């Protein structure tokens, strides 16, 4: 029996060996990181080492990094009315989010529904900057949320330009960088982000750990969870020591190999796309703009995503129809709908995403499966 091929890295990644070792070591510790005795201090050391690692990786100060239970919680924590700069100025009163954001951002965090506005995107999936300027000029100060890289198409947003526009209007910028970390360079200061969110299991760490990083000089963050002074009084609850240690180890490993891995993934992605285009009239979404080096979202006339995902699975290839955060059901892509594609097209989108251990043989097997599926599923 042939080994399976995993091409759903944007949904979750395999656990890195470095993360596994860090977690095993952490599970042997007995201390609570809030305790002052030696056992507690040792647990605290692991948490703070991971905090410093993540902070260094994204250009934040350790005191401005908050660990959470997931990227979803980190997004909810970030989307908070009342945020402002400590240097002065009014607090944000409304939220503007791009139409292609992850569901955890589209729900608006703790902003009231009537305080949330949608920023349209162009056909490429890139945010409409002129429309953003118009929205910012029509109301009180806003928190704007624009993701660094789309989880479905891989399209990269012009975050630095968005930040300049937002700051000129007196607003703040949140960046969901969950798909970007470990695939492309991401520095909060270079991007101009005021808040950025991350998730461990997208970078080779364990599931169930996320983080919010903030720029220096931001105030007004209202904790989601209260009842203790953990995480610098920004999130109550005993820390997931093993998960956080694994997160830190995964980030360190990912950053060390970032350039080499990105180059390898881009080479394989291009080969994959060239092969896909030659079968059944397939097209690649967002291929005219800068994208993550590992992501391919495609469709073909008459293709149904649910049937294609099952077909790939039966051929031993794990792929998806887009986001894996919607109760496991194959649903039309809101990202493609926001990009202006017909619902019938959105229902046929299939995503293949690569990772650091993807090999040429994996690409060849995926293309072999697509040839077979294209010849059977799309026969007129």
What does this protein look like?
Catalyzes the removal of elemental sulfur atoms from cysteine to produce alanine. Seems to participate in the biosynthesis of the nitrogenase metalloclusters by providing the inorganic sulfur required for the Fe-S core formation. Pfam families: Aminotran_5. Keywords: Iron, Iron-sulfur, Metal-binding, Pyridoxal phosphate, Transferase. This protein is of the alpha/beta class. It folds into 2 domains: 5-14 and 258-377, Aspartate Aminotransferase, domain 1 (Alpha-Beta Complex), CATH 3.90.1150.10; 17-255, Aspartate Aminotransferase, domain 2 (3-Layer(aba) Sandwich), CATH 3.40.640.10. It is built from 14 helices and 14 strands. The strands form 4 sheets. The chain has a 7-stranded mixed beta sheet, with helices on both faces. A 3-stranded antiparallel beta sheet has the order 11-12-14. Strands 1-13 form a two-stranded parallel ribbon. Helix 7 (188-191) links the parallel strand 7 and strand 8. It is globular, with a radius of gyration of 21 Å.
Any chance you could write out the topology, listing elements then pairs?
Layout: E1 5-6, H1 17-27, H2 38-58, E2 65-68, H3 71-78, E3 84-85, E4 94-98, H4 103-106, E5 116-119, H5 129-136, E6 142-145, H6 159-168, E7 172-176, H7 188-191, E8 195-199, E9 210-214, E10 218-219, H8 230-233, H9 241-256, H10 258-277, E11 283-284, E12 295-299, H11 305-314, E13 317-318, H12 334-338, H13 343-346, E14 350-353, H14 360-377
Parallel strand pairs: 1-13, 4-5, 4-6, 6-7, 7-8
Antiparallel strand pairs: 2-9, 3-10, 8-9, 11-12, 12-14
Helix pairs in contact: 1-9, 2-9, 5-6, 10-14, 11-14
């Amino acid at each position: 029996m042939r080994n399976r091929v995993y091409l759903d890295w944007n949904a979750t990644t395999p656990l890195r060996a470095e993360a596994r070792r860090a977690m095993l070591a952490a599970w042997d510790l007995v201390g609570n990181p809030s305790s002052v005795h030696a056992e507690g201090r040792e647990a605290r050391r692991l948490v703070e080492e991971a905090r410093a690692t993540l902070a260094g990786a994204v250009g934040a100060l350790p005191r401005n990094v908050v660990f959470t239970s997931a990227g979803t919680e980190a997004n909810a924590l970030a989307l908070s009315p009342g945020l402002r700069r400590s240097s002065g100025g009014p607090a944000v009163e409304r939220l503007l989010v791009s139409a292609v954001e992850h569901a955890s951002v589209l729900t608006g965090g703790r902003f009231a529904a009537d305080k949330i506005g949608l920023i349209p995107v162009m056909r490429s999936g890139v945010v409409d900057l002129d429309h953003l300027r118009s929205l910012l000029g029509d109301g009180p100060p806003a928190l704007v949320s624009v993701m660094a890289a789309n989880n479905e198409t891989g399209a990269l947003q012009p975050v630095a330009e968005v930040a300049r526009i937002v700051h000129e209007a007196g607003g703040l910028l949140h960046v969901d960088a969950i798909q970007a970390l470990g695939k492309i360079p991401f520095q909060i200061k270079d991007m101009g982000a005021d808040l950025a969110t991350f998730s461990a299991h997208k970078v080779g760490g364990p599931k169930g750990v996320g983080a919010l990083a903030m720029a220096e000089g931001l105030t007004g963050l209202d904790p989601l969870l209260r009842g203790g002074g953990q995480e610098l009084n920004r999130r109550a609850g005993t820390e997931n020591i093993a998960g956080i240690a694994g997160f830190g180890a995964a980030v360190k490993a990912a950053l060390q190999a970032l350039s080499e891995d990105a180059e390898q993934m881009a080479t394989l992605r291009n080969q994959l796309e060239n092969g896909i285009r030659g079968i059944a009239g397939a097209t690649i979404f967002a291929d005219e703009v800068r994208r993550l080096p590992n992501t391919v979202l495609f469709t073909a006339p008459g293709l149904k995503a649910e049937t294609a995902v099952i077909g790939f699975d039966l051929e031993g290839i794990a792929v998806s129809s887009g986001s894996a955060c919607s109760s496991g059901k194959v649903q039309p892509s809101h990202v493609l709908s926001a990009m202006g594609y017909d619902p019938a097209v959105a229902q046929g989108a299939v995503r293949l995403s690569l990772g650091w251990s993807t090999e040429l043989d994996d690409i060849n097997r995926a293309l072999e499966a697509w040839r077979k599926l294209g010849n059977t599923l799309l026969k007129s």
